[in-house]
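Worked example (supplementary).
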Amino acid sequence: MSTEEAVVYPTYVILGSGGHTAEMCKITKALLQQQRAKDSDKYQPIRFVAANNDETSDRQLLAVLGDSGTDSLLRVPRSRNVGQSWLSSVFTIIYALLWSCWLIWRDRPQLVLCNGPGTCVPYCYAAYMWRLLGRLPAHSRIVFVESFCRVETLSLSGRLLLPLADIFVVHWPALAKRYEDRPNLRYFGRLF
Amino acid sequence: MHLKTVYVTVGTTKFDALIEAITSESVLKALQSRECRQLILQHGNSLPKSVEESRLISQQYGIQLEQYTFRPNIEDIKAADLIIGHAGAGTCMDILTNGKVGLIVVNDELMDNHQQELARQLATERYLYTCKPSQLAVQLESLDFESLRPYESADENMLKFVKALDELMVQRWTHSASK
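After joint prediction of all chains, the assembly is encoded as:
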């Protein structure tokens, strides 16, 4: 066995709040479905990432995935709280960025999977950067699923991540049409 | 189709125009003609109707008005014959996944509210109806709620996505296995 194989490369699933987390739980559940045991094992171990003041994600994870969900939950600082001043935002954003860089460097995820909350942006950029710099395996991937309620326009997270996601999923035909020239953009019909 | 219990929800914000419209004479008349007996109003940060006003509504239209600010509303959704709601994604999905009949009232004072996109898309596909606050009475009189489509499961699409993801990752898996 080579040293390469001995390293465990987890899947990072970035949660947001409320609706984002509910959608992400459904996606993760589909990934781990029993009849796909052969492939679904390969996504393990899964680490969930949630902002440290997000109390609803815990409960939703527990409800959908049981203890295995909450056991692998990583708590991270939030980039910006609603109503936070501009100046203090600069510091909290830098702090959140450094955290994401550290976690991605430490855990070397094979896949970063996210669906649109602001929290996910630094994790995708960190994964992109560490892959370029060789810390992540060259075959590690970034997958972005746009928010279900985005029908005609991309979210801010979506616009920031469209250039670097390996697969960028939209749910509605108008978005698929608008970005049909993007090879990484995929449309499977609505996922929920 | 009789609409015995009608549930109105504005979500976590306020939507004065919807509260005003739903308690207007023309809408109450339309509800009465659809045999509405109970009107439950989740008014959020909008002001509720006074005790005197709800007494009048009960007397004039035979409609019992129940009002509250917020509470977990899954029971209200399940018990309703019609849900009239704001254009929030959560409200739209609650209606569809519970197999309910819904009329989404779009807040035309909000500019560039992307959540309205979802409600409009779902209306285009005939899963629910949308209208403006000013159209509420006319719509309640004329809409054929039985012609709405049931919301189909999207499991097949999800499977396609998972398959694409497997294909994307297989490179990585074969790469590490061959070492």
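Two points are worth noting when inspecting this output. DSSP finds nine helices and seven strands in chain A. The interface with chain B takes residues 2, 4-5, 9, 18-19, 26-27, 30-31, 33, 36, 39, 42-43, 110-111, 137, 139-141, 143, 145, 148-153, 155, 166-167, 169, 172, 174, 186, 188-192 of chain A (CB under 8 Å).
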